[in-house]
C-alpha cells in the first residue's frame, strides 16, 4: 500500500522532465545548422577562411577529402589515354590555330612580344606552347602535372617549379581546376617579372567540367586575388567553352 504512490510519482517525474526538455529539443532542431560539413570540406573551409578573398562569386566545390585525392582526380584526366590521343591528333590541328589567333591579338595589344619568356599553365600536351612558338614567341614552355617533352614540363600550379620573377607572360585556361585559387594566383604573381602579364581564359556563370574544383561567377574575385597586379582588360572570347579573357599586369616593385 505504501509503495503504490511511487509508481505514478516516477511516471510524473519522467513526464515533467520530458516536458522540460522539449524547449531544448526545439532549440536544437530549429537553430541554424552549419551546412552538412564532413571531412571533405575541411580543406576548402581552411582555404576560404585563410584567403578572405573567396566570395559568393568564387566557390570551391566540395568533395575532395584531401589534396592527394584532388591531385589523383586531376591526374586521372591528364593521363587518360583516349583524351591524350585526341589532344595530340584531332584537337592539335583544330585548337592550335585558335590559340595562335588569341596570342596574335595579345601581340597586337603589346601584351606579348617575340622576346617574351612565356609560360602556359596546365598545358596538357602543349597546344598553347606550340601556338606561341608559331607566333614567334620561341622562349615558351608549358607546365602540367604530367610532362610532355619538349613542350611541357612537370609542375603543380599550386607550387610552381620556377624562381621568382622568371616570366614576362603567363597564360592559363585551367583556373577552374584550382582547388586553392589564392595559391594559383599567388604563384603566378611570384613567378611573373615585374610588369609581366598574365592572361586567363575563364568560364563565368556556368559550370565548366567535372574536373573543375571551383566555380567563378564574376571577374571580381580575380581582381581581388591578383592583389599585386592591375587589371588590363576583360573581353569576351570563344575559347573552347571558356567565355571570358581577363588580363593583368604585375605591378613594379614599390619604391621606398
Ligand atoms: C581514376 O580512374 C580510374 C579508372 O579510370 C578509377 O577506377 C579511379 O577511381 C579514378 N580515381 C579517382 C581518384 O578519380
Ligand atoms: C619569392 O617571392 C615570394 C613571394 O613574393 C617571397 O615570399 C620570397 O621571399 C621570394 N623569394 C626570394 C628568394 O626572393
UniProtKB/TrEMBL annotation:
Supply the Gene3D superfamilies for this chain: Vaccinia Virus protein VP39 (3.40.50.150)
**Entry's Pfam families?**
Methyltransf_11
Query: Domain of life, per the record?
Result: Eukaryota
SUPFAM superfamilies documented for this protein: S-adenosyl-L-methionine-dependent methyltransferases (SSF53335)
Q: Where is the Methyltransferase type domain?
A: 119-200
| UniProt keyword annotation of Transit peptide present | no
MF terms from GO for this chain are:
S-adenosylmethionine-dependent methyltransferase activity
Which InterPro entries did the record assign? Methyltransf_11, SAM-dependent_MTases_sf
The name this protein goes by in its record: Methyltransferase type 11 domain-containing protein
Q: What is the lineage of its organism?
A: Eukaryota, Viridiplantae, Streptophyta, Embryophyta, Tracheophyta
Amino acid at each position: 500500500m505504501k509503495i503504490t504512490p511511487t509508481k505514478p510519482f516516477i511516471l510524473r517525474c519522467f513526464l515533467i522532465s520530458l516536458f522540460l526538455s522539449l524547449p531544448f529539443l526545439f532549440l536544437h532542431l530549429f537553430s541554424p545548422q552549419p551546412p552538412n560539413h564532413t571531412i571533405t570540406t575541411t580543406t576548402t573551409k581552411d582555404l576560404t577562411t585563410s584567403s578572405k578573398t573567396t566570395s559568393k562569386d568564387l566557390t570551391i566545390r566540395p568533395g575532395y577529402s584531401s589534396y592527394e585525392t584532388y591531385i589523383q582526380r586531376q591526374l586521372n584526366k591528364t593521363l587518360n589515354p583516349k583524351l591524350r590521343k585526341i589532344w595530340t591528333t584531332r584537337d592539335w590541328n583544330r585548337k592550335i590555330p585558335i590559340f595562335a589567333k588569341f596570342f596574335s591579338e595579345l601581340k597586337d595589344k603589346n601584351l606579348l612580344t617575340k622576346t617574351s619568356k612565356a609560360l602556359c599553365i596546365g598545358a596538357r600536351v602543349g597546344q598553347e606552347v606550340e601556338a606561341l612558338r608559331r607566333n614567334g614567341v620561341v622562349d615558351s614552355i608549358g607546365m602540367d602535372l604530367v610532362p610532355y617533352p619538349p613542350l611541357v614540363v612537370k609542375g603543380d600550379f599550386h607550387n610552381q617549379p620556377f624562381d621568382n620573377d622568371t616570366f614576362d607572360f603567363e597564360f592559363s585556361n585551367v583556373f577552374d581546376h584550382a582547388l586553392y585559387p589564392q595559391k594559383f594566383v599567388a604563384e603566378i604573381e611570384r613567378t611573373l617579372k615585374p610588369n609581366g602579364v598574365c592572361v586567363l581564359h575563364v568560364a563565368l556563370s556556368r559550370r565548366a567540367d567535372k574536373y573543375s574544383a571551383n566555380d567563378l561567377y564574376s571577374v571580381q574575385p580575380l581582381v581581388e586575388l591578383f592583389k599585386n597586379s592591375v587589371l588590363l582588360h576583360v573581353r569576351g572570347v570563344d575559347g573552347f567553352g571558356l567565355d571570358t579573357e581577363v588580363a593583368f599586369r604585375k605591378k613594379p616593385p614599390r619604391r621606398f
